[in-house]
Amino acid sequence: MKSQILEKLPSELGYRLPAEWENHEATWLGWPHNRSDWPGRFTPVPWVYAEIVRRISAGEKTRIFVESGEHERHARTVLRSANVDTNDVEFFVFETDRGWTRDSGPQFIKNASGIAQVNFGFNGWAKYPDYKKDRKIPGFISKKLGIRTFWATHNDRPIILEGGSVDHNGNGTLITTEECLLNEAVQTRNPGFSRNDYEKAFHDYIGIDNVLWLGKGIAGDDTHGHVDDLCRFVNEKTLVLVEERNQRDDNYKPLCENKERIRDFTLADGTKPDVAFIPMPEPVLFKGQRLPASYANFYFSNAAVLVPTFDDPNDRTALGLIAELVTDRPVIGIHALDLVWGLGTIHCLTHEQPAASRRP
Length: 360
What we know:
The protein is of the alpha/beta class. The protein has a single domain, classed as L-arginine/glycine Amidinotransferase, Chain A (5-stranded Propeller), CATH 3.75.10.10. It has nine helices and 20 strands. It is globular. The termini are far apart.
């Protein structure tokens, strides 16, 4: 990437990272095509996507990457069969490696003048070799939308950051994990990057004044600690953290440690956050491998909060707890046992594009 000299950083221009529950213009997804993401379980996955698109398109545009015209025709056939009104769906022919747009897409920011985007680097979670198409997604979107774009760099190198590694409240506070961003031995995104380096980048590029650091993520997460399976904001003041009560479970100790950390957290305005706890489902396994099944991987669309469910007794409990916290839109469960075979679910697959103004 060419060296970039900015007259002003996004933070100096009043840009901030909107909260996910703020009004969207659209949600971006990639229609599934990489069968290796769902080994032995690919066939039902497009139908799960169709249900996600049906729910999202009830309140905003859905913008979908497809590999070709034939791929688009297949997607349209599935959507029509699932009773999706495709008038609110836009297709973009653009080849991708995978479908995890949360991580490979840009970070949309806004100020009083409108929407811009920050393009962070993407390197396949510092693990997988098939990412070179996906890392071009932010550039493609910026050209299609014709919006101002900032490239996040440090010493003329892209700062690697996946969308699922952070969560935020739209009011200056961001939450992440040390396991994902600070581990120098496993899946290192930015070698040599310190806590202060990340906090400065978050301030300069996405207007974050306050960073909250949890420890480890959940067992089975091959991203090595993404926070969107662990802890999420549901409003400016409230965090939900997953918890495990089975002392023999691999998640028990790290989640207890995170529970202790969160007691000391303070928001950007100096107040302490409210904290609610949602259970974990029973472990979901594939060929002896634990999968990252978590209710925290929910997604705020304009029309509803979409929560992954796993045919588990705790499905109803988790949906009920989230519905108590989110009262401005329905909370809807989406069957995700097939999705999680790909090592991610609803939040991992979706990427919101905020509207220029807040929801009235």
